[in-house]
Amino acid sequence: MSAPDRPNRPLTYKEAGVDIDAADQLIEFIKPLTKSTVRPGADGAIGGFGGVFDPKAAGFKDPVFVAATDGVGTKLRLAIDTGNYSGVGTDLVAMCVNDLVVQGAEPLFFLDYYATGKLDVEAARTVVAGIAEGCRQSGAALIGGETAEMPGMYTDGDFDLAGFAVGAAERENLILEPRAEAGDVILGLAASGVHSNGFSLVRRIVDRSGLGWGDDAPFAKGQSLGDALLTPTRIYVKSCLAALASGGVTGLAHITGGGLLDNPPRSFAKHLAAEIDVESWTLPPVFRWLAETGGVPAEELARTFNCGIGMTLTVSADRAGAVTEILAEAGETVFRIGKLTDRAGDAPSVTLQGLRTWPA
pTM to 2 decimals? Predict the structure, then answer.
């Protein structure tokens, strides 16, 4: 118990709720994690006032830098409520680096921001371990971050995360303007689960179901409901970079908020439209359960969630087979889900064929 707060009694920062020793302890825990993400251009050292990256040492001649920032949304609420923090750090990296690769950029480095009312060193260590795992998967170096202990800003046990990634591409390889043409094939890469979008709706549906986070997941044998929904977001960086290097890829779209209806059009010009056949892959059980339990209409499901497709690529028809092989060799499950056509008048930019097969 702290001493009574008498007038003129000397106070310490720790008594005000900020434990510098705990923060220092966390930094010591983090140092080997950052070293595990070392790559050309970064030495993995932390502790200075800023992280340093040398693009010349990374092999770039005329780089254009691309930056992205994101969080993990209310999936973080689920992680906090279940005490399972092991995957949200990977989610944080994934949401940033998957946005970089769609512009043809290779992730170079990552920084994180961890804010809490009272620092739980073990919880923070677990989160940063997940961040390091995401960095290793994407080839980015974890070169720094910030841990902010702010008493009075967050309730006990709560924290928030933000991530910041910077990537680069040689100037001639950067995807700035739409390259796709009518007749291009649309490939879809399988998602690992719900990823990190739509969790405000997920949590409402779980409330309606009457299930607890520790109950068996109706759609994932052998897993609790909480753990199944916390499956980390898949990182598509290395497979997509390989596909881009092979030639024939004309556009990519990370399927995040807005789902299959709002994201694909970001990768092609307005005079084109995507025809996507949702029967070309099987709607994963988690989305079928969410739809049936929440009474979510098929179109709402497609606008809210990835529905099993975490990334789309448009590819010239003559290269579709070769690119599919490259992606499969890189570990992706690839579906040929549609094609681009000329858009007629006010027709929608995405048409989902076969929605009748999805639960309403």
Answer: 0.92
Q: Which two tokens mark 83?
A: 């005490």
**Residues, the chain, total?**
360
Please check whether residue 139 is in contact with residue 94, taking contact to mean a CB–CB distance below 8 angstroms. no
- Report the distance separating Cα 267 and Cα 102, nearest Å: 8
Q: Which amino acid is at 27?
A: I
Please say whether the beta carbons of 336 and 187 come within 8 A.
Answer: yes
Quote the crossing angle between the two packed helices 88-101 and 237-246, to the nearest 10°.
20
- Torsion of the alpha carbons at 241, 246, 248 and 254, rounded to the nearest 10: -10
- Answer for the pair 119, 147: CB distance below 8 angstroms, yes or no: yes
Integer Cα distance of 354 and 334 in angstroms: 19
Residue 184 burial (CB count, 10 A): 26
Nearest one of 45, 49, 60 to 107, comparing CA atoms: 60
> Which long-range contacts does 278-282 make (Cβ < 8 Å, 24+ apart)?
278/302, 278/307, 278/337, 278/352, 278/353, 278/354, 278/355, 278/357, 278/358, 279/353, 279/354, 279/357, 280/188, 280/335, 280/336, 280/337, 280/338, 281/188, 281/190, 281/308, 281/309, 281/335, 281/337, 282/308
Instruction: Spell out the per-residue pLDDT of the chain, length 360, in tens.
Output: 445 566 666 767 677 777 777 777 777 878 888 889 999 998 756 666 788 889 889 999 999 999 999 999 999 999 999 999 999 999 999 999 999 999 999 999 999 999 999 999 999 999 999 999 999 999 999 999 999 999 999 998 999 999 999 999 999 999 988 899 999 999 999 999 999 999 999 999 999 999 999 999 999 999 999 999 999 999 999 999 999 999 999 999 999 999 999 999 999 999 999 999 999 999 999 999 999 999 999 999 999 999 999 999 999 999 999 999 999 999 999 999 999 999 998 999 999 999 999 997
